[in-house]
Amino acid sequence: MSVLIQEERDPIEVVVADKSPLILAGLVQMFDLDERFNLVATAADGERFLEAVERLNFDVGIVGWNMPYLNGQGVLQELQKTENPPRIIVFTGNSAPDIPRQVMRFGGAGFCSKCDASTVLAETVLAVSEGRMVFPFMDLSRSSSDPFSGLTAREQELLASLARGRTNQQIANDLTISLNTVKFHLKNLYGKLDVRNRAQAVACYLNASGSV
After folding, report:
1. pLDDT at 125
2. Measured between alpha carbons, how far is 18 from 68 in angstroms, rounded to an integer?
3. Is 61 exposed, middle or buried (0-12, 13-18, 19+ CB in 10 A)?
4. Where would a tag sit more exposed on the chain, N or C end, judged by fewer CB atoms within 10 A?
5. CA separation for the pair 34, 125 (Å, rounded)
């Protein structure tokens, strides 16, 4: 009688970076309770995440998109200069429609929304560790001249806030920046989207995300 022996796999080593202490605490708890993973370290921003890349060997990095000092896009761009970097999953609550496309373009291996269940993130980490790429559906036939592709992470964040009906002052409070800084970013945002005002920018955003 043959006996099937299942080979045990070493835990997947993970490093997490997010600006929110609550998110970090939740991810620490999630990974600590799951024997398939070994959480090696956490970081509060992109620069500290890159320091972890230099010091540690790990399989998968989970990073936010909007982080202080160095955002998710910056992390991905810096890792393109690194030999044998970890596979990166962007885990974000930013709902700007073009972020998954940018993550893929800058070399990320996966994308997961903070609106998804924790099991979705766990399965994404497993898939990415096995060499697969995990992204939501994207219409790759869209022109590379898509105006959303030229937005910075901050401009995408502001656009998503506009779509939620936040005022300039509320956005300033949410992001801990000055009202003048908000106005500066919005001016650049309107120019890149070729719109004249907030209403047109929101309409452009909703149309691209399929909400209208």
Report:
1. 97
2. 9
3. buried
4. N
5. 12
pLDDT tens-digit readout, 153-166: 788 888 888 888 89
Q: What are phi and psi of 61, to 5 degrees?
A: -110, 135
Instruction: For CA atoms 177, 64, 160, 98, give the dihedral sign.
Output: positive
Are 24 and 106 found together in one domain?
yes
16 and 46 Cβ atoms separated by less than 8 Å: no
Structure tokens at 161: 């806030």
140 in a structural domain: no
In a domain, 139, yes or no: no
Q: At 174, which amino acid appears?
A: D
By DSSP bridging, strand 87-92 and strand 12-17 are unpaired
Model confidence, pTM: 0.68
Token look-up 């835990």 returns 11
Question: For residue 94, what are the domain limits?
Answer: 12-129
